[in-house]
Amino acid sequence: MKRQITVIAILTIVSQLAAFVKLWVTARTFGVDAAVDGYNLALVVPVLLSSSLSGIVQTGLFPVRGQIAARESAEDVDAFERAVLLGLLLLGLGLSIVLALAMSLITSWVAGDASEATQQAFKLAFLPLISLLALNVVGDCTGYLLAMRNRFAIAAGAPVANGLIGALILLVFNDGGVSALVWSTVVGVALQVSICIYGLSTLRLNLIGALPPRRSFAAAVVDMARLGVWMVPGVILSNLVLSLPQVWITGFGDGAVSAFGYALRLHLAAIQLIIMASSTVILAKFAELVWTQQTQQVDKIMRNSVLAGWAIGILGVLCVGLIGEPTLNILLDGKFTPDAAHRVSMHWLIVTASLPCTIMSNIYAKLWQAQGKPFLMTLLSAMNLGIMYVTFMLVSTSFFEYSGAVALTAGATISAFLAVIIEWYRRSHARSVGAI
Question: pLDDT tens for residues 164-177?
Answer without folding.
Answer: 999 999 988 877 78
